[in-house]
Specification:
One of its GO terms (cellular component) is plasma membrane. This protein has 22 helices and 20 strands. The chain is of the alpha+beta class. Among the domains are: 142 residues, Penicillin-binding protein 2a (Domain 2), CATH 3.90.1310.10; 316 residues, Beta-lactamase, CATH 3.40.710. The strands form five sheets. Strands 2, 3, 4, 5, 8, 15 and 16 form a seven-stranded mixed β-sheet that branches. A six-stranded antiparallel β-sheet has the order 11-10-9-20-19-18.
Amino acid sequence: MKFLRRNQVKRQKVQSSIPFRLNFLFFIVFLLFAALIAQLANLQINQQKKFASEVNSTDTKVETKNVQRGMIYDSTGKVLVANDASRAITYTKPMNVSSLKMYQIANQLVKSVKISTSGLTESMEAQYYLAVPSQLKKVDKQVEKSQGSLSSTKLYQAEVDYVKQKNLTSNLTSKQKQAAIVYSKMSGAYALSTVYLKYNDVSDREMAEVGENLTSMPGIKIGTSWSRSYPYGKSVKSVIGTVTNRKQGLPSDQINSLLAEGYARDDSVGSSYIESQYENVLKGSKQIITLETQNNKITKEVKTFGGQKGDNLVLTINADFQQKVQDIIKSEVESVAGSNPYLPGAYAVVMNPNTGAIYALAGVSRNLETGKISENALGTINQTFVMGSVVKGATVLGGLLSGVITPNSNTLTDQPIKLKGTATKASWFNATGAEDMSLTASDALMVSSNSYMMQLAMLEGGFHYSPGSALDLPTSIFSKLRGYFKQFGLGVKTGIDIPGESSGFEGVSNQANIGKALDLSFGNYDSYTTMQLAQYISTIANGGYRLQPHILQSIRESNNDGKLGKTVYEFQPNVLNVVQASQSQWGVIKDGLWKVVHSSNSLRTGGLLSDTTPAVAAKTGTAETFHGSTETETDSSVSYAPADNPQVVVALAFPGMASGNETHASTQTAATIYKAYWKMVQSDQGFK
């Protein structure tokens, strides 16, 4: 009985404690919910701005890396310009990195890598010194004492100047000087841009040590640098141009525009001629890495574009032939220099008259004091000379187009031109008038009659010549004659796809110099480039089409094996203008150029080309020039072959030759060039 009562009491106690436990549990849950609600309220109300700021600080940035530049080939597929790869140490600047951190990384890097200090300046040393906060603070105090309050930019410059003036970097060790170079490159970079700290001669040991310590040097990476090489020699480098190296960086006159296009300050870029002209083709597309950042820290890197190598250029130049023509010009200048002390060089252009494709452009400059000869192929487009009688084909066609002569009525008497108050002007073979003769237009070209050309100019200006009369011409005669010349490319830019060509030089065209119009008519007044001569003779050879000379043949991609891939662009002949002459009018000019070489007349001027096969048509020129007060001559020639089916033209200029020179350098050189052309570029089979 007692046992039952005890059990009943226990059950009553247990049952009475259950509501208490449940109430306590509910209380704990209530507290937890209250805490959660309070925290949510805190996050949503009190810390809303903080988290919104963090979300807003999340950003996506783009980092770019260079790819190798497109290669350049000659017309036969020989590599003229290639790329050499070399190991490199680079630095990609993080967001908001401190000067002290870059200072520390620079010091650590030079423990493993040897850096050249050839470009180190006092300013670089000073900036390196000021990267240490304690040293910056001391210098800052001294500057403020002496100069007072300054803007941040002026203050920092004053601090740099103070360090230099007080010679505070005089005790820098060799390693510290190397670190100063590195620090300068690092600090000068934009956030997330990549600069090269060492781009050649990186040793295996340096690569290994840097690789082992990358985690302790944020931003330091191992990469590849590309530099230009010339496996076929540098014979056409003066035409191809140059690429800036890492040390040079972007050209100073283009830096702002190139930076806007996405270049880095130390990127290599075409700085002259073909490398510059076709920069957008050769440079390729940079590798793109998308960087996700939060609170200015990189959280993720994704390569979104692997980059694409630049496309390749195939040139119209035949490398072997180009070198041969260059050697021919140099050899001829060396041969005649002894008897021609004022010869400043010589220039040659070999071109396809039907397409404008340039097979070779060669030239040399000669130092008149030392006699040293240097390659200057670009002198063909930027050196101008008074060329002489080579332009007479344009003069005769101008007379035909203006109507003062016709294909069936064009006979004039070669005679000395004697005008009131001026010196007599005459042809080379008829200085005294003892050899007066009737000449047709084609015969006038054959014997290179100055008198005939002057009479054409006077007729075009409305003046009928009689010996002893005063010259009465309007100044418009200058523009009239030049108008015909320009239709052939004489006195205007040819449009060649190489930067820097000259348009030539025009003499004074006022009434006081009206007599110079007569000199202009036979090529002894205005000056032209050798390339203009080539365009001029091509226009005659093809029957009136002034074609743009070009050195680019095509643009091609690269295959996976590195060889030339598919063609993405091919240059098509570009007609700049058409000389509107009839077949019979062209016949007068072409007949005259044939006679220059092949006539039996003893006065023909191009007889040295008569044995050249296939047959050549030509016009020679001798311009009267001066070196100071010493009389000199320009020896020039233009020609095409075969005469009845032109495939190639050759234009040559030897300025500054001795007066009365009889070496006929330009004509002899043309014969040598034709022989090389038919052997090295095109077969002469089927031509005569």
